[in-house]
User: Fold these one by one.
Assistant:
Number 1:
Amino acid sequence: MARILIVEDEQADRIILASILEGAGHEVYFASDGRHALKIYTKTSIDVVVTDLQMPYVDGLELIEALRALAPDEPIIAVSGKEPALLAAAKKQGVQATLSKPVEPRQLLEAVAAAAQGRPVAATRTVMMRHKMDQRLKILERLAG
């Protein structure tokens, strides 16, 4: 199954998303904002990122932009319950799927499965790619910091 990074500032929503994904056999990692997500992403092999769009510090759209700089083909699913315009903006940034809150379990699982298809297993990523991402993270942290 896939390694999934859930980026969500609301604890209740993180728990709901994690329950759905872990129940389907996925390995789940958590971040409460985009800054924390970038740190986890550069240290952990992740297959799919599921991110909320409205968060403190580094929001979801900024996170998507940073992830695209690190790994242009990273499967990303954007989630929002407050602003449909944010989901449209995320779609323009090339996310694989957008979901409205409250998220339907079936829709989440289908989006994760579709996003993870055709992508190498996270454990097979090269050391060179990780080094490149570490360099870019340092730049992004200086900008966000």
Note: The helical segments are 11-23, 34-43, 60-70, 84-92, 105-116, 127-144.
Number 2:
Amino acid sequence: MLKTFKMYIFSYWLYNYLVVWYEYMNNYSYIHVENCIWGDQMEHKDIYNDLAELFKLIGDPTRIKILFCISKKEMCVIDIAELIGMTHSAVSHQLANLKAARLVKAEKKGKEVYYSLDDDHVEKLFTLAIEHIEEGR
């Protein structure tokens, strides 16, 4: 009988705790768009997916190496492959992904295609990321 009573008290306490937690989470834990540093941009639901895809794409160490290779000067696939120690086809595949995301641009010169960063935003993104990492060290 005492054991049943203790279980009842515990169940009642747990239930009340979960109700309070649920109400708190519903009322206070979501992001208020008007308080967000990005303002109106975050109202568009696609921006979340686009940001996630961008960070997923540049989150790969191989693609980061490629982006750093071409950040200083334009390079062809052969030069990039030699520099990072990968096959030409693997580098071409990664460059195609980066080009589709508008992180790199291609320019054909004779028979060779030379790749460079698409614009200053890509370089700024990496510069800020490196500054952030260095700050924590």
Note: The longest helix spans residues 2-28.
